[in-house]
Design brief:
Strand content: 15-25%
Helix content: 40-55%
Number of helices: 8
Strand order of the largest sheet: 3-2-1-4-5-7-6
Number of strands: 7
CATH topology: Rossmann fold
Radius of gyration: 17 Å
Low-confidence stretches: none
Largest sheet: 7 strands, mixed
CATH architecture: 3-Layer(aba) Sandwich
Distance between the termini: 15 Å
CATH class: Alpha Beta
Bound molecules: S-adenosylmethionine
Structural class: alpha/beta
Number of domains: 1
């Protein structure tokens, strides 16, 4: 089994699971995790040094519900089972402000489709940025996707404790944050069962060897 499958298997028993994509040094994740001891919080980042710092921060605070994975978001999403996550948190993703670089932004229709498939019905995507056009882009994609409802509900206060959050608060820069709720779908249980069947086959195959 992969590290991710191990993690999810160890989180059975109805505990929640939330993911921060681009967790940086783990400021947000560790603050947030302290207030949610019964939820598994997975932080992922593409930079090894930041992952190490985030891990150290979680250890120092004695947080047993935090796991940090050094992995690219796209590969991570690909490996996540369907309907396995309660929330994705994406705060201050790289904005790629030059128009010729916009295609490098993380939040695209493709990644949104991936997140939609991995979220449980009623699960949420939280998104925050100081780039107004990125905020609008994310909202337009959500509307075009059709599988989410924009929510007026509160966003976690800890967002502004991240390195970038703190920086923008200090500079009095406007930050835009929203959350969107995934509509439940009739296929959810079928997809979960199909995935569980594949996992069971895989485990039995190993046991027979
Ligand atoms: C601008 S920083 C924000 C960090 C943190 N969320 C904060 O608010 O302080 C963006 C983070 O996303 C990470 N990142 C960029 N592209 C990524 C990818 N494809 N997969 C995972 N992490 C990525 C970067 O390494 C960086 O730590």
């Amino acid at each position: 089994m992969t590290a991710l499958q191990d993690l999810l298997a160890g989180n059975a028993g109805g505990r929640g699971c939330e993911v921060e994509i681009g967790c940086g040094n783990g400021h947000f994740l560790t603050s947030y995790a302290a207030s949610r001891p019964d939820t598994l919080l997975i932080g992922i980042d593409i930079k090894a040094k930041r992952c190490r710092r985030a891990r150290e921060k979680a250890e120092k605070r004695g947080l047993r519900n935090v796991q940090i994975l050094h992995v690219a978001a796209e590969a991570f999403l690909h490996d996540l089972p369907p309907c396995s996550v309660d929330a994705f948190h994406i705060y201050f993703p790289d904005p790629w402000p030059k128009s010729r670089h916009r295609k490098r932004r993380f939040f695209t229709m493709e990644t949104l489709r991936s997140m939609h498939g991995r979220l449980r019905g009623g699960g949420r995507v939280y998104f925050g940025t100081d780039f107004f056009d990125y905020y609008l882009q994310a909202k337009v994609l959500l509307a075009l996707h059709g599988g989410f409802r924009l929510s007026e509900g509160p966003v976690p206060e800890a967002v502004l404790t991240s390195i970038y959050g703190q920086r923008f608060v200090k500079a009095r820069k406007a930050v835009k944050i929203f959350s969107a709720v995934r509509f439940p779908s009739l296929d959810d249980q079928g997809e979960q069962d199909e995935h569980q069947g594949k996992v069971d086959d895989h485990v039995q195959g190993h046991e027979r060897r």
